[in-house]
Amino acid sequence: MPSEALLIINGHSLEAMQIANEYAESRNFPAERILVLTPPISFFREENGSPKWTVSLEDAKTHLLEPVMAKIDALKDASPTALILSPEWPTRVRVPGSPEISITALLGCQGKIPGGDLIKNGRAISPWFTPPPDTPQKRGRLLRYPVKGMKDKIFYPAAMLGVYYLPLTTERMQKQLKTAVNADFRQPVGSIVFETNADVRTRTRLAQYKLAERRVSEKGIDVAFISAHEKPPENVIGVMGGAASMNISRYQGKLLPGAFADHLTSHAATFDLKIQTKLTEWLQAGAAASAGTVTEPYAIWMKFPEAAVFERYLRGTTLLEALMQSVASPYQVLIVGDPLCRPWAKELKDLRIDTEWDEPYLKVEASGAPQSSMTQMHLFVDGKRVEGNGPVWNLKRNAENTGPELELILHARYLWALPEVGSLKKTISTPFPETLNLKGSAKSDHVALKLKSKQELVMLEIFRGTEKIHSVKLAEKKPEIELSLLESGTGPVTLRAKAVTLDGEIRWSNFLEISPEAPN
Q: What letter would DSSP give residue 497?
């Protein structure tokens, strides 16, 4: 769930912020589960402005790994279910004495990189991986979210929302992610396609295809084996192949929302080499996500998704969870797309929040999920997690920590045969008077804010979510503030003002929802 994930945004890229903030809004990400970093531009772009795909281990630790680990520690979260990178991050890390690894693998292993020979030979095995078949006895060994008490052993699942490599653009990434999000709970019906040929890239997973065919066919799923020259079925929920070059355009309009597709080859995610078909072609064709290696993996199946990924995905897991269970040695692989897509889970459609004020207490009661030890509920108030698993929370609020509005976000999950999942966001009025009124609008290159106060102010701070982005000393009741787009962020953002009055009182404004756009 987003309440257990961490969305890591490149705050020095207006385009990356727009894509990531739209994604965060569509999945009800709480503010404290969003981390905006501001690495030097030289960390992710070349001097000519093109993407920088490869960085040193030292730079990756300084500008990405260390602040991410600090955030995880601050959240006191031993096992985040997904570390999700916005676009505009490097994809590959140079490691002395080892093959290069993906940027997501560096986050996943928390910088504790196995020996180079283990990575090269596909023997650096993730604790998430369990080889098929998923018999009832073995299925119990599959790790599922959330994983507790394994901080020193666990490999954090990690993925990237998109990359700036053709045919992907900002608009195409926005469309692809929106389609994937909307695929949740749709239970699509279609075929799984295995493309076959005599290439070693296919032969290395061919035995997996046969086992996967038997397993999913028993569940009533159609499986098609086709050659590169044959027409795919009309409705496709998954594709696996193996070839340096693939005619992925054949699948345009045939991949159902939520589909996973990949092809085993060396350079599907080596975006600085203009050779072989890239994974971005699958995303353009309609896949929710794809995977590929960032450096030469050789034809070692342990470095690629096992065909069992489809059976696991069909159980209602997120796509990232199914992939993590199915990649034995994930150090060179990069997963790109919507990691939280879960078309075959069930939705908690009746999830709701009821509130009742008995000043200074607010009673929050959640309903619509089974009352069971298998049910987990995460409540966030103004972006911050409230202790307890519900379904009832009693919160003490006052005018110094609460404005005229409160934002409530609830994420719930019932872990059963098929996971049942739901979330909702609700803004409620409070009994505290509106002494600060925040208004504003997005301009082409900045955000203009106007604040009206009933009291004289001496200090003003502007927050985006839980992050303070601007502060100023003042002595007026109607200050006007101009924020750069890098300060405000692009895409849908929620701003709020906090002020100190002349009498030393702390007051909060209303929420201001705006959506600045990155310049073309």
A: E
Tell me how far apart the alpha carbons of residues 413 and 443 are, in angstroms, rounded to a whole number: 40
Token pair recorded at residue 496 = 């709020």
- With contact defined as beta carbons under 8 Å apart, do 345 and 316 qualify? yes
Report how far Cα 302 is from the mean position of its chain's Cα atoms.
Answer: 24
Cα–Cα distance, 317 to 403 (Å, whole number): 38
pLDDT for the residue numbered 138 = 56
CA distance 372 to 367: 12
Residue among 375, 373, 434 at smallest CA distance from 402 = 434
- Whether the CB-CB separation of 189 and 235 falls below 8 Å is answered with yes
Q: How far is CA 242 from CA 249, 313, 493, in A?
A: 16, 20, 42
**What's the predicted TM-score (pTM) here?**
0.94
pLDDT exceeds 60 at position 139: no
CA atoms of 413 and 346, how far apart (whole Å) = 10
User: Which helix H or strand E contains 241, and what residues bound it?
Assistant: strand 236-242
Kindly give, in sequence order, each residue whose CB lies less than 8 Å from that of residue 159, ignoring residues fewer than 6 positions away: 82, 83, 84, 85, 104, 289, 320, 335, 336, 337, 339
Q: What is the pLDDT of residues 414-472, one digit of tens each?
A: 887 788 899 999 999 999 888 888 999 999 899 999 988 888 888 889 999 989 999 98
Helical packing angle, 170-182 and 14-26, nearest 10°: 10
DSSP-based three-state secondary structure for 132: coil
In 3-state terms the chain splits into helix, strand, coil percentages (rounded to 5) of 20, 30, 45
